[in-house]
Design the sequence.
């Protein structure tokens, strides 16, 4: 966990007071609607279909138990008793009364949290690998760099009114678990030939109406030059990004318009002028941020020899262990995923009772730390292997142990028409329908890893373009229909899915997905995952099956 | 006439905007980029105190050769949400060492004043409806900053 410095704390408190005054002036009719909109967005406050929606930043997806209890308190006191975990690792509250938001922000500030720059045309909360600091394949903990970026981007006077929103993701491992290739800037930690650490820099990725995979801007950026380089990118974008059309304003459009080589020339020229400025990070600055992160007091353990026996004795535990836990770099420990994708639950939703209970489990089993993931689940990342079975039992009681991580029912899904003013179609009920079809766990496991993503509109908050199976809600004469894309991927093999055929009515979309999965099961070769088979045989067999008339 | 302030209070505007149709005159004049370029020879030979007003899409590179002669650069916020002038000011101060006055014009809102000041602006022509007295509070709401910009928060 990162502990706030005095500067961090004061700045967040001053920001709350500033927003309280802005809200007061707005409610008193002294602040124009459009102006207040821009101000409230930069404090995470949208106005949605039914009510305001407040998006709280979870920097790089890490929380402590006190913070999670505060989120539970906010859900109970100001909202309707639940919250939603987003694909950018944040928490959203769907019903807070506008006039209470300054109070909510003040409560958040009390536990070193905020909602600064979680929306609006500015640099958004930086996301990171949910396994940061614990992944065995990690080169370096990316959170230090995320925190340096958080500080640099917070209330940046020059870059707070950009042409459009700006999203940065950082990964510290060779394995990409943050969808870095579909961010405005993707930073991938790499080693150079001498073993020094730096970043491979991608630019211009993004989804929405014009999905684009990020392009390589720089093969290697020394890590201490991170801020000056990102500053250079932002200045070129701020001056030259389009502002005449909201749908053409993301950096990806600029990069595509002038070409990556010309864009690189501009960035490098700009960078040349500022490399040797205060933006260069010296060792003391980097160490100060690194030292502000708690080091956990791991026990000296060997890997637990009893785990295989426990699994043999209890097949349900064994299934959960296989599906929902991952290796930890420290012997004797294991990473545990808490599934927020259970039956009858909107994907990514969590109740206040669950939040309080998870906070308590985090205190008992995981050094009080909780993480949020890009896939809209939670993680307890620091669990002793010998305690896994006890934790599993508690999670089962809390309905957080559905052993479906990475399977067909671990669906990434936006809030859709039920909550969002932008949506064309519902998404939550479609996710429920699909999950139900694969309810029999054996069937889900037989299907193996497959990612389904659902977006209620072309803004693509459910990242449907990079789902192995992507569903996009479209409005046809007032009815919900869904366009199907196949072949998307969000990891190192990032790819955009291609449209399968005509969109499908809501009543038939679950059946269509089932047919896609059945086609895979029939045509796969031994050891092939869904995406492997799809890449080998192409979309045609899937298309024939989905659009075949059965009646 | 918009209300002119700096971070300590109201100012009397002693600059005159010379629109493109008005004949050249002495004193302290602010002209458009187009006129500045067209009449540069004449202006540079005169003893006018001269400044220029740039729109957000007019690159500051156009005025760099003339910078030593310019006592004021006015950067116009055509729309308050168009943030290009923040970068223009920042470049003038940090990159090109401009030491004259940088003034914000156009949709200059109270709630952006602190960002403007930190980017290098020092005078502000407030948009209609902004109260110059309460606008001053905007400069002190946030007293801390993380970035090495033209000016730190105060």
Sequence:
């Amino acid at each position: 966990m990162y502990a706030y410095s005095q500067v961090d704390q004061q700045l967040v408190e001053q920001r709350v007071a500033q927003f309280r005054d802005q809200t007061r002036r707005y409610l008193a009719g002294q602040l124009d609607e459009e102006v207040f909109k821009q101000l409230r967005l930069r404090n995470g406050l949208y106005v949605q279909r039914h009510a305001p929606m407040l998006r709280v930043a979870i920097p790089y997806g890490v929380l402590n138990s006190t913070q999670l209890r505060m989120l539970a308190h906010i859900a109970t006191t100001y909202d309707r008793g639940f919250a939603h975990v987003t694909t950018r690792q944040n928490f959203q509250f769907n019903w807070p009364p506008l006039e209470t938001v300054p109070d909510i922000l003040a409560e958040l500030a009390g536990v070193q949290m905020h909602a600064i720059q979680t929306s609006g045309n500015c640099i958004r909360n930086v996301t990171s690998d949910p396994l940061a600091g614990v992944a065995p394949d990690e080169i370096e903990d990316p959170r230090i760099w995320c925190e340096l970026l958080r500080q640099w981007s917070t209330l940046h006077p020059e870059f707070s009114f950009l042409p459009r929103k700006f999203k940065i993701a950082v990964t510290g491992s060779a394995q990409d678990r943050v969808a870095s290739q579909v961010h405005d800037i993707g930073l991938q930690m790499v080693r150079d030939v001498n073993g020094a650490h730096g970043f491979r820099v991608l630019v211009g990725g993004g989804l929405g109406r014009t999905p684009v995979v990020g392009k390589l801007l720089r093969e290697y950026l020394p890590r201490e030059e991170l801020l000056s380089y990102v500053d250079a990118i932002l200045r070129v974008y701020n001056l030259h990004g389009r502002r005449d059309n909201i749908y053409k304003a993301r950096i990806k459009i600029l990069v595509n318009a002038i070409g990556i080589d010309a864009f690189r020339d501009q960035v490098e020229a700009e960078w040349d002028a500022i490399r040797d400025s205060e933006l260069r990070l010296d060792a003391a600055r980097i160490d100060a941020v690194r030292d502000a992160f708690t080091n956990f007091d791991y026990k000296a353990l060997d890997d637990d020899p009893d785990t295989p026996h426990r699994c043999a004795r209890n097949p349900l535990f064994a299934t959960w262990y296989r599906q929902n836990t991952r290796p930890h770099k420290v012997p004797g420990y294991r990473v545990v995923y808490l599934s927020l994708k259970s039956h009858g639950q909107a994907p990514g939703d969590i109740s206040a009772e669950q939040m309080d209970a998870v906070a308590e489990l985090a205190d008992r089993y995981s050094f009080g730390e909780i993480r949020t993931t890009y896939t809209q689940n939670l993680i307890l990342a620091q669990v002793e292997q010998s305690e896994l079975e006890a934790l599993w039992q508690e999670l089962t009681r809390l309905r957080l142990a559905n052993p479906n991580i990475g399977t067909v029912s671990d669906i990434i899904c936006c809030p859709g028409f039920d909550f969002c003013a932008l949506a064309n179609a519902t998404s939550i009920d479609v996710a429920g329908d699909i999950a139900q079809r694969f309810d029999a766990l054996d069937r889900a496991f037989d299907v193996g890893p497959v990612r389904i993503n659902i977006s209620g509109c072309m803004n693509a908050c459910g990242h449907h373009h990079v789902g192995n199976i992507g569903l996009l809600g479209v409005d046809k004469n007032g009815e919900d229909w869904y366009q199907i894309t196949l072949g998307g991927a969000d990891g190192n093999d990032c790819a955009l899915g291609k449209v399968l055929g005509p969109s499908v009515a809501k009543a038939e979309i679950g059946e269509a997905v089932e047919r896609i999965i059945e086609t895979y099961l029939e045509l796969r070769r031994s050891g092939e995952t869904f995406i492997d088979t799809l890449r080998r045989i192409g979309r045609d067999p899937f298309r024939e099956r989905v659009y075949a008339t059965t009646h | 006439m918009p209300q002119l302030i700096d971070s300590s209070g109201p100012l009397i505007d002693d600059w005159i905007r010379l629109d493109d149709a008005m004949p050249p005159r002495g004193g302290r004049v602010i002209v458009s980029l187009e006129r500045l370029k067209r009449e540069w020879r004449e202006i540079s030979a005169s003893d006018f105190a001269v400044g220029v007003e740039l729109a957000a899409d007019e690159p500051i590179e156009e005025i760099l050769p003339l910078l030593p002669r310019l006592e004021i650069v006015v950067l116009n916020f055509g729309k308050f949400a168009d943030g290009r002038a923040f970068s223009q000011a920042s470049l003038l101060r940090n990159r090109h060492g401009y030491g004259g006055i940088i003034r914000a014009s156009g949709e200059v809102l109270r709630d952006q004043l602190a960002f403007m000041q930190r980017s290098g602006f020092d005078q502000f022509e407030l948009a209609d409806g902004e109260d110059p007295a309460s606008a001053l509070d905007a400069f002190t709401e946030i007293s801390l900053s993380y970035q090495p910009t033209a000016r730190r928060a105060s």
About this structure: Chain A touches chain B through 34 residues (CB under 8 Å). The longest strand of chain A covers residues 215-222. Residues 232 and 271 of chain A are 5 Å apart (CA to CA).
